[in-house]
Design a protein that fits this description.
Jann2411-like fold; two-stranded antiparallel ribbon; binds zinc ion
Length: 217
Amino acid sequence: MTKAPQAGPFKFIAGALCLDFVNSVGGRIRTPSPRRANGGEILREQLLGYEDLLSWSQLGGAVTEREAGALVRRAQQQESDGRAVFARALCLREAIYSIFLAVLVGHAPQKADLAALNGELAIARGRERLQFVNKQWVWRWEGGDTELDRPLWPVAQSAAALLASPGLARVRECPGERCGWLFLDGSKNHSRQWCTMRDCGNLAKVRRFRARRTDAA
Ligand SMILES: [Zn+2]
């Protein structure tokens, strides 16, 4: 039996799976040049191997517990395949990050990033199957418990869906120092500013408070 993954460092606060995947790092510093919106320095990597990717996917509801259990066993048998998928996952994550960053600063995406996303998207779409289950039509993934790249399919799909939706205008970057997480502002009055109030929001409050006290002194 596979043990249930621990939440560990992972948080799912973005409102879109693809952005939560971008946030599977412990913060980023964005490349300062406005002409180079691609990438940024990762302050702490939270995904260190294929099993971390699976834990993240299961916690985020992107793979089922049964699939995660089957895939973890398969990855133990096919270690080099697991490593290759893991490298693709990081590539996909950074491509998605760069693309959304380009959107945020009003630039066209880098060709290589779009190609990376489209490549993963083509694989994901090839795995989609329309099924008739309990008198309802549903999309299902074929090979969910045998294909090691299963965790990447819903991520690529989520990025494509968000990019081609009106929700794109609601993607924000947390202004917290050393954060750089992306999220979807789902608030009614478009006022969500922070990844979480508990983390960056409170830190900013404390800083403002301290600054006021220094001014008053
Ligand atoms: Zn933040």
